[in-house]
Design a protein that fits this description.
Length: 87
């Protein structure tokens, strides 16, 4: 869950924010309205990676097909997979 801070609170807490932003973002408000989102670097990189994955249309088609196959029980056992791959 995001943490809400006023601009003044964010300024006061700036030295501690990097440690606090490792698990959740901070939403900074001005006059009671959200105006800035502060993210830790790892969160930001993860978000960019997620966007990259979701924008790969071929991957998304394959992912959705795989999910549908799994939902209807079209799976194989690990042992069968190993045999098929020659392990």
């Amino acid at each position: 869950m995001a943490k809400y801070l006023t601009i003044s609170e964010a300024q006061e807490q700036l030295p501690q924010l990097p440690d606090e932003l490792t698990t959740e973002p901070a939403i900074i408000t001005k006059d009671g309205k959200p105006v800035i989102i502060a993210l830790g670097l790892l969160q930001f990189e993860s978000l960019l990676e997620t966007i990259e994955i979701l924008s790969d249309s071929e991957f998304m088609v394959n992912l959705k097909a795989g999910i549908q196959e799994a939902e209807v029980g079209e799976t194989i056992s690990l042992e069968s997979l190993k045999t098929e791959l020659g392990f």
